Amino acid sequence: MPNKLLEQARLVCQKNGVRFTPVREQVFSLLADATGSVGAYELLTQLQQTDAKAKPPTIYRALEFLIDQGFVHKVESQNAYVLCSHFSEHHKAQLLICDSCGLVEEIENQTIYTALSNAAHKTGFTILKPTIEAHGLCAKCAEENP
Fold first, then answer.
1. CA-CA to 89 of 20 to 30 Å: which in 17, 18, 64, 123?
2. Structural domains of the chain sorted by starting position, each given as residue range(s) with its CATH number in brackets
């Protein structure tokens, strides 16, 4: 994982006046090193390699913090987590999820969010979690499986 991402996360925490504890940093680093999304228990298993006493609440508290800071997105359909590709500010993301290899690519398209928001507003609906997930095949898998 590039140290640049970790340093950027530290600066965001400092700016927000929140503690980036060693456990939070470790979970951040595990997600930064991951390819695709990672489940909480998989993260816990990896964390226990350096912190044998880590338990499920440890990982869930760290993930909640990382989500609150905008560092991580929860991939609801996979019950997993992925590092935000540009976490310097909270944003409305769309996640493209490859059902073949598990790659999760984040895009941010304001037109998509605006259309969804306008349609919801017309029905009196308020969107609280604006992340959209789309499942399909990444370019590599689509090429391999025409």
1. 123
2. 3-83 (1.10.10.10), 94-144 (3.30.1490.190)
What are the C-alpha distances in Å from 83 to residues 25, 50, 52? 12, 20, 24
Binding-site residue numbers for Fe cation are: 90
What residue numbers does the annotated binding site for Zn(2+) cover? 98, 101, 138, 141
pTM of the model: 0.85
State which H helix or E strand residue 38 sits in: strand 38-39
Which positions make up the binding site?
A: 90, 98, 101, 138, 141
Give the Cα separation of 106 and 13 in Å (integer).
22
DSSP labels, 71-137:
SEEEEGGGTEEEE-TTTTS----EEEEETTT--EEEE--HHHHHHHHHHHHHTT---S---EEEEE-
Flag whether pLDDT at 40 surpasses 50.
Answer: yes
